[in-house]
């Protein structure tokens, strides 16, 4: 039962309900697509050479399965072009033969977008891993799409710069995948979205045309900004082959505080104080709840509780990055004194050296992997008004405890004071645990439901409830992970029909045969 607070919210929910088609399992294989033939493999060999064409079933396994182990395809071939010309020749062939294609980067996506649904041809950018140029004056980096994010960060670090995005998957995700998902990450609060920092890109369209938009200009008002279409397109419009990106100066001083607060409402007060008092040096404001902490301490080896024994329900990671260690420390200490004196913060620690900074970040960044270690996980990545963010976690906990008491009962979540506390004890809580964490400063909640295995019984309690709740609160059902296969039927919860219709027109204009990443992002036409 939903309460509508305004007419606007009510009409939003109505169009959402009317135009949503839930992704209940995968759609049927589209009969327009051809099946792979030996002559196709011969053509791919002629373009890429034998090393660039993977057909052995064992070697294909990682290309067919996503990071979560939730989505599995059955491709018979993965192609590894090294150059834009090779990529163009492959796509031109696939288009003429009506072979469906899935672009794949580091395969760290969390919505099933990077793996085939059926037998689509995987085009992997793993061998497109060259830095093309770096301008040390402007800080603009131009790199092939398959460069690993962390490797690029190390590259620009040598010149005193850093990448404008950072995320837990940095060791394996690729810049082309980051751009194609419009990844947000841990420092969007400071450096903004890729829609701002990507200056140019090169993409191969399905017909094989190369769209060279690889400029490094800060300002360029000549016609429609076509590169924006590919940022967040999730491989449905073309293959991104190179990216030009603006890198900010690498901060000389980084400080991290880890704080315990009594409620999510108080966490918001601390955010307001941080924005006012830390101003330009504030670079991250993240939160994790006690369930997230407990699961991570238990399931991710090497993690340590920065506040052992503290039973607070919500923890914050507050980071400053600047050019003067003394200036930043002074600001951060004053801020911490202020929030402590006001009684907003129950307990806290300030990392004393880079090892402690890493330790705190490992805890926050490691939640995703810890949840994966625990078992299966239903992941939701929603944007909401900050004031509403945590209510969804609490309501989900209550809902699951009521509906499935044998699986979710006595969950030790934030505010419940129950077991599974954040002390790294052996208690792994009930089979179903609801964890909330995310980018508080950006209004981005990661609601995660850790379960023993994926099941219809559990899923029906979560979906479409979580999407309806989000639409009801004028949120977005995908803040940063994209729609992929998981939410291809859910765009209507966050976009009106007119917007979806324009998206379909763009898709038809760029990919008239629909070969690029079918079944993903847009719902099938009724
Ligand atoms: P893939 O997973 O390979 O692909 C993702 C999508 O982009 C697919 O639809 C694919 O078809 C398409 N694609 C990939 N490369 C290209 C290309 N060259 N051209 C066209 N389409 C392409 N996301 C966030 O936003 N913020 C986070 O903080 C964050 N943290 C994460 C932490 C972990 C531990 C993990 C596993 C994932 C995390 N993610 C996060 C999700 C994920 O979106 C990002 O890791 C990343 O942006 C995906 O990059 P990738 O190279 O792995 O892309
Ligand atoms: C994060 O912020 O940790 C990532 O988006 C991954 C996740 O949601 O688990
Ligand atoms: Zn995130």
From TrEMBL:
Lineage of the organism: Eukaryota, Viridiplantae, Chlorophyta, core chlorophytes, Trebouxiophyceae
Family: Belongs to the FAD-binding oxidoreductase/transferase type 4 family.
EC numbers, comma separated: 1.1.99.39
PANTHER family: D-2-HYDROXYGLUTARATE DEHYDROGENASE, MITOCHONDRIAL
Entry GO terms, CC: mitochondrion
Keyword Oxidoreductase set for record: yes
The FAD-binding PCMH-type domain, residue ranges: 71-250
Protein name, entry field: D-2-hydroxyglutarate dehydrogenase
Record-linked InterPro entries: FAD-bd_oxidored_4_C, FAD-bd_PCMH, FAD-bd_PCMH-like_sf, FAD-bd_PCMH_sub1, FAD-bd_PCMH_sub2, FAD-linked_Oxase-like_C, FAD-oxidored/transferase_4, Oxid_FAD_bind_N
Gene3D superfamilies named in the record: 3.30.465.10, 3.30.70.2190, 3.30.70.2740, Uridine Diphospho-n-acetylenolpyruvylglucosamine Reductase, domain 2, Vanillyl-alcohol Oxidase, Chain A, domain 4
Gly residues bias (residue ranges): 410-423
The protein's required cofactors: FAD
A Pfam family reported for this protein in Swiss-Prot or TrEMBL: FAD_binding_4
Region (Disordered): 407-433
Keyword entries, A-Z: FAD, Flavoprotein, Oxidoreductase
Molecular functions (GO terms): (R)-2-hydroxyglutarate dehydrogenase activity; FAD binding
Gene source species: Chlorella vulgaris
Catalytic activity: (R)-2-hydroxyglutarate + A = 2-oxoglutarate + AH2
